[in-house]
Amino acid sequence: MSGAEVPLQPKKKGLTRRQKRSLSRGVQYVVFVAAVIAFAVAADWGRLKNQFAQGAIAREMFPDVITLALKNTVLYTVSGFVVGLVLGMVIALMRLSSVGPYRWLAGIYIEIFRGLPALLIFIFIGVAVPLAFPGTEIPGGTYGKVALALGLVAAAYMAETIRAGIQAVPKGQMEAARSLGFSPARAMISIIIPQAFRIILPPLTNELVLLFKDSSLVLFLGVTLEERELSKFGRDLASQTANSTPILVAGLCYLLVTIPLGFVVRRMEAKAQEAVK
C-alpha cells in the first residue's frame, strides 16, 4: 500500500547529561569509600600505634617542640621570606627595566635559582661561601645563613609573581599618575606597586607555606641543639627513642601553621574574585 503511513518508531530514552554526571559522581564516591574500607581493613593498626603513637614519648617532647623547634622554624621562615621579598622586588623591577643588562641579569638569576633544588643552595651557602671567602662570616650565624639560603630560593619565584602583579595593573594607572606630575619612580612606588601587592597576596602567602616546609633543609648547615627546627628535632628524638612518634608530632606541628595559612590563602583568593565581579 503506497499511501499507507509508516508508524513512527518510539525514540529510545537515554540518560540525560545531568543524570550521567550524577551517576559518575556516585561511582567515584563508591570507589573512594571502598578504597578507604580496604585500607582500614588491611592496615595493621596495632603496629602503627606502637611505632607512631606512643603517648609517653609525645608528652616528653613538650614544651621544647613548641618553644624551641617550632619557634626556630617560624624564625627561619619569616627571615627567609623577608629576604626573598626584598630581593624578589629588586629582581622584578630589573626584569621590567628598559636597560637590557638589567633584564638579562634578572632573567639569568631567575632561571638558575628556580631550576636548582633548594638543597643545593643550602649546601652552597654552608660550604662554598666559606671556601670562596675565607674568614667571612654571614651576619646572624645559622639564622643568617638560613635567611640567605631561603631568600635566594624564594626570590626567584617571588620576582616572577611580583612582575606579573605589576603588569596586571592597568596601564592607565601609570598614565594617570604621570598626568598628575608623578615621576615614573614615584608613580611605581606610590601607585603601581601597592595595587600589584593586593593582586599577588595569595601567591605570596603560598610561597610562605613552601618556605615553611623548606626550612627543614637547615640541617645541612650544621646546627646546634638550640638551633634545631621541627624536622631535625623530630629526627633526633626518633633516633634516641627508636620510635617514630616524634616524627608524627613534628608533622602535626607543621600542620598547625600550614593549615591556617592555607585557609587565609583561600579567603584572600575568594575576596579577590569577588572584587573582580
Automatic annotation (TrEMBL):
<feature type="transmembrane region" description="Helical">
    <location>
        <begin position="247"/>
        <end position="265"/>
    </location>
</feature>
<keyword id="KW-0812">Transmembrane</keyword>
<dbReference type="InterPro" id="IPR010065">
    <property type="entry name" value="AA_ABC_transptr_permease_3TM"/>
</dbReference>
<dbReference type="InterPro" id="IPR043429">
    <property type="entry name" value="ArtM/GltK/GlnP/TcyL/YhdX-like"/>
</dbReference>
<dbReference type="InterPro" id="IPR000515">
    <property type="entry name" value="MetI-like"/>
</dbReference>
<feature type="transmembrane region" description="Helical">
    <location>
        <begin position="180"/>
        <end position="201"/>
    </location>
</feature>
<dbReference type="Pfam" id="PF00528">
    <property type="entry name" value="BPD_transp_1"/>
</dbReference>
<comment type="similarity">
    <text>Belongs to the binding-protein-dependent transport system permease family. HisMQ subfamily.</text>
</comment>
<feature type="transmembrane region" description="Helical">
    <location>
        <begin position="115"/>
        <end position="136"/>
    </location>
</feature>
<keyword id="KW-1003">Cell membrane</keyword>
<keyword id="KW-0813">Transport</keyword>
<protein>
    <submittedName>
        <fullName>Amino acid ABC transporter permease</fullName>
    </submittedName>
</protein>
<feature type="transmembrane region" description="Helical">
    <location>
        <begin position="74"/>
        <end position="94"/>
    </location>
</feature>
<keyword id="KW-0029">Amino-acid transport</keyword>
<keyword id="KW-1133">Transmembrane helix</keyword>
<feature type="transmembrane region" description="Helical">
    <location>
        <begin position="26"/>
        <end position="43"/>
    </location>
</feature>
<keyword id="KW-0472">Membrane</keyword>
<feature type="transmembrane region" description="Helical">
    <location>
        <begin position="142"/>
        <end position="159"/>
    </location>
</feature>
<feature type="domain" description="ABC transmembrane type-1">
    <location>
        <begin position="84"/>
        <end position="271"/>
    </location>
</feature>
